[in-house]
Amino acid sequence: SDREIVLTRTFDAPRKLVWEAVTRPEHVRQWYGCSAFTITTCEIDLRVGGSYRYTMRTLEGVDHTMTGIYHEIVAPERVVHTERYETTGFTSPDAMVTMTLTEQDSRTRLQTVVLHPNKESRDGHLNSGMENGAGETFDRLAALLATMS
User: Fold this and answer.
1) What is the Cα–Cα distance from 138 to 142, expressed in whole angstroms?
2) Distance from first CA to last CA of the chain, Å, rounded?
3) What are the CA-CA distances from residue 47 to residues 91, 112, 146 (Å)?
4) Is the pTM of the predicted complex or chain greater than 0.70?
5) CB–CB of 53/65 below 8 Å?
6) pLDDT tens-digit profile of 84-143?
7) Core vs surface per residue 121-148: b (16+ CB within 10 A) or e
8) Residues 44 and 52 sit within 8 Å (Cβ to Cβ)
9) What are phi and psi of 35, to 5 degrees?
C-alpha cells in the first residue's frame, strides 16, 4: 500500500534458530545494520510492553538509533512492535512493524511489514537507502545463521 514496506528473505535455517538470532542481543549485535556501522547499544526486553534499543555508529561518529515497544510476541513465529528512527536533527514518527517467521523444509521465510502513519513517512524511509541496507543486513543474518547450530 502507500503506507507499507514489505521485506522478505528465506534463510537456510530452521525457524527456532532464526527466532533466536533475531531476538537475542548477543546475536543481533553481530548482524544488525550495515557492516560499516558499529553497534554500540543492543538492548532487548522481549515481552509485551517491553522495549528495544539498537544504536549504530558510523565511521564518522554519527549515531543512528532504532527504538520501539513490543505489542505482540508469539514465539517463534511473530513479533509486532513499534519502530522509531533517531539521528542528529531527525526523529521519525513511529511505524508499526510485524515480523513473521514461517518454516518449510528446514528453511525459514522471514517477512517484515513496516506500516507507516502516512505516505510521506513511508516515502522518506524508502528514499533513505534502506533497501540496500536491509539487503546487507539480511546477508549478515544469513552468514551468522550458517555458523549457529
Assistant:
1) 6
2) 38
3) 24, 19, 27
4) yes
5) yes
6) 999 999 999 999 999 999 999 999 999 999 999 999 999 999 999 888 889 999 999 999
7) bbebbeeeebeebbebbbebbbebbeee
8) yes
9) -65, -20
Q: Which amino acid is at 100?
A: T
**CA 5 to the chain's CA centroid:** 13
All three cell numbers of 120: 510521506
Residue 123 half-sphere exposure, CB side, CA atoms within 13 Å?
4
Residue of 82, 63, 60 lying closest to 71 (CA atoms): 82
What 8-state DSSP symbol labels residue 50? -
Instruction: Return the pLDDT at 106.
Output: 93
- Give the mean model confidence (pLDDT) for residues 73-82: 98
CB atoms within 10 A of CB 49: 8
Q: What Rg value do the Cα atoms of the chain yield, rounded?
A: 15
* Res 48: pLDDT: 98
C-alpha cell at 97: 512493524
